[in-house]
Amino acid sequence: MNRLNIEEKVQGLNALWQKTKGAEQICIAVLDGPVDTTHSCFDGKNIKRLDTLVPQTATIQATDTAARHGTHITSILFGSHSSQVKGIAPLCRGILLPIFGQNKAGDIKAASQIDLARAIEQAIAAGAHIINVSGGQLSNTGEAQGFLLNAIKACKENNVLLVAAAGNDGCECLHVPAALSSTLAVGSMDDHGTPLAHSNWGQNYANNGILASGHQIIGAIPNEQTTQLSGTSFATPIVSGIAALLLSLQISLGQKPDPEKVRQAILASATPCHSNNIGELDCRRFLAGTINVFAAQQLILNGGNINMSNENETVTTPTTQIESGLMANMVNDTAMNSATAPLIDTAPAVNEVNTLIGPSEAQVEPSGCACGGGDATLAYVLGTVGFNFGSQTRKDAFIQAMPAGKNNPDDPQQLLKYLKANPYESQSIIWTLNLDATPIYAIVPNGPYASVVYERLREVMQAQLDNGVDMVSIPGIATGSATLSDGQVVPQIIPNPRGMYSWATSALVESALGECPSDESEKEVYQANASGLTNFLDRIYYDKRNLGTSAQDRALNYSATNAFQASQVIETATKGRFELDDIAVKKSPVCRPGSDCYDVVLVFFNPQNSQNANKVYRFTVDVSGVIPVTIGQVRSWSRK
Fold it and tell me: Are strands 597-605 and 579-587 parallel, antiparallel or unpaired?
């Protein structure tokens, strides 16, 4: 069977390798299945696994489908050129963040959009320049949920390139995160430059998508084996690797690596579809075009000017016509290693998602497979308190222990009454921190004040039921994971009781502004201030909701807890009849020694007069400790 090496499949790659095979300063994050790093193709490579919610096992079995996918993808990027698998960028640094696990049936266990968002934020914090996601979720809108949108926005703000698979459904349909505008989406083509039948297309991809070789790509799998597989999964690391080489080229030129500039170069230099050359084939299937390594290299070398006269390798425009009757699903491609069973790279059967589907239902899956306790991190999270039993056995134990007639542990009032009489039982349930009824953390009291935290959790949940409390702040250390009764795995947070506060928004506003005056003229001003502060809090709770682990998110969340300082800003802005336009968090240019400071910036506009300059207010939050603190005074200025 045909077994072309990667340099034979990717035109222009050999010429680029002559200039660089990667730089150790460039970091590529692989968000996929676990990786068998003992495979000889990874010998001597600078690759490190970071802890995620996917458990790490001592040995990886050859039958682990998630590990087969993760190992294959990673080897396409980092495989040693002295091994059977030549990686695209073997001298770059890699970080591995497994998001796909394996279920009891032996199939790949999909990740949620929250899981993907967490891993993206981890990759940014770890210094990744490029994040490779060879997977996605079929979406009828091309939109992502808030958590994932925030994570991808953080990629853009930190100039990190997210490269994601376009999906293998063989239709005009979109996958998330590939469909999002700042992502570099990747479709797959054969060795002649023709789109593979399974590769997705769509209007979004026409602006941010690129075709790359995705047919019979050689890669490593566990237990010293190799295979050849097809799909957008395997085209994605080829593009990620080429982007890494272009970043390395920037370094060799004495430039600062600029992932966004590389993204633009790859898209701008793509070879477009020419319908007159390919007969009846729909040019939409070519996305923005096929990757042109030489032209992208020239853009980086020449600062935007492509000089094709120096081309040493022939670059051709796709001319091969695809047969009519395109398959609705991906072509079945057989693993070429005789020691392994054939794998079919079909589009996973997943539920369509839109912005109304809850995060726990949103499943991100690998795009190239036949499948439908660790490092501590500071966290400051907002949400509501809930509970979970972890298993039916544990729930049954409560049913038997609770008084007859009042033994429904699913009823929060009955459960709280039982826990009040038997406080030691508080440690027998899993306390959760929820956003929109979706658990995002398991709260695990620990240390000498654990009993105080359990008491506080019971009080908060009772206040949620009886007194309209709609938010709680949980500062602490995020580490390890817990499995809930529905099988969902969530990270654990060990809370610091000193920073645990709960409130109803209306009460917090009144606490910040004082009681509403009886005088009608003063009352009108008060209500305007209250409306502005409520808007500010709601924006953070819902529009800016986040996982609370990045420094920016902890600063933002603390600014909502510390509403008194925000109220000063709101009151001043309201007097000038300004309304809140945007909230942003930026690294503070000035910070005291040993601290980590971020500026929370509030921008206001005058809805009555768009010609007025905007008012900008800034206050600084130090997030170097478990519990953030504000420092300095509120600053303000006007800007057009």
Answer: antiparallel
What CA–CA distance (Å, rounded) separates 230 from 527?
A: 61
* Same domain as 493, residue 608: no
d(CA 621, CA 566): 12
The pLDDT value recorded for residue 60 is 86
Q: Which residue has the tokens 């080897």?
A: 75
Q: Quote the CA–CA distance of 343 and 220 in Å, as a whole number.
A: 14
Residues 384 and 355 occupy one common structural domain: no
Closest Cα to residue 634, out of 553, 556, 572, 549?
572
**Does residue 371 belong to any structural domain of this protein?**
no
Q: pTM for the full model? A: 0.82
The tally of CA atoms less than 13 A away on the side-chain side of residue 152 is 24
Q: Tell me the three state secondary structure of residue 171.
A: coil
Q: Confirm if 368 and 238 have CB atoms less than 8 A apart.
A: no
Query: For residue 348, what pLDDT is reported?
Result: 32
Residues 6+ apart with CB under 8 A from 276: none
* 78 phi and psi angles, rounded to 5 deg: -115, 0
H-run or E-run covering 53: none
Q: Are residues 402 and 445 in the same domain?
A: yes
* 30, 94 contact by CB (below 8 A): yes
Are residues 193 and 310 both part of a single domain? yes
Amino acid at 36: D
Quick: pLDDT tens for 302-330: 876 555 444 443 333 222 222 222 222 22
Residue 85, pLDDT score: 96
**Residue 2 confidence (pLDDT):** 58
HEC profile for 142-169? CCCCHHHHHHHHHHHHCCCEEEEECCCC
Same domain, 126 and 255: yes
Token pair 């210094």 in the structure block, residue = 127
The answer to whether the bond into 366 is cis (omega within 30° of 0) is: no
CA distance 65 to 348: 14
**Which amino acid type is present at position 9?**
K
Residue 278 falls inside a structural domain: yes
Structure tokens at 488: 């969902």
Of 78, 12, 7, 90, nearest to 301 by C-alpha is 12
Whether residue 167 is found in the same domain as residue 208? yes
User: What's the domain count of the chain?
Assistant: 3
Q: Which two tokens stand for residue 477?
A: 């250390």
Give residue 37's domain range.
Answer: 6-366
- Could you give the strand order of the β-sheet that contains 579-587, starting from the edge strand earlier in sequence? 579-587, 597-605, 614-622, 629-639
Which residue has tokens 């398991």? 442
CA atoms of 196 and 181, how far apart (whole Å) = 23
Check if the beta carbon of residue 356 is closer than 8 Å to that of residue 365. Answer: no
| Mean pLDDT, the chain, whole residue set | 86
Question: How far, in Å, CA of 471 to CA of 489, rounded?
Answer: 23
C-alpha span between 433 and 437 (Å, rounded): 9
Total Cβ atoms within 10 A of residue 276: 5
Hey, is 439 helix, strand or coil?
strand
Q: Clarify whether residues 418 and 462 are in a common domain.
A: yes
Below-50 pLDDT ranges, the chain = 1, 308-362, 369-374
pLDDT, tens digit, 9 for 90 and up, residues 16-46: 999 999 999 999 999 999 999 999 999 999 9
Per-residue pLDDT, 142: 86
Q: What is the dihedral of CA 396, 409, 448, 548, to 10 degrees?
A: 110
Task: List, in sequence order, the alpha helices (H) in 37-193.
Answer: 65-78, 113-125, 146-157
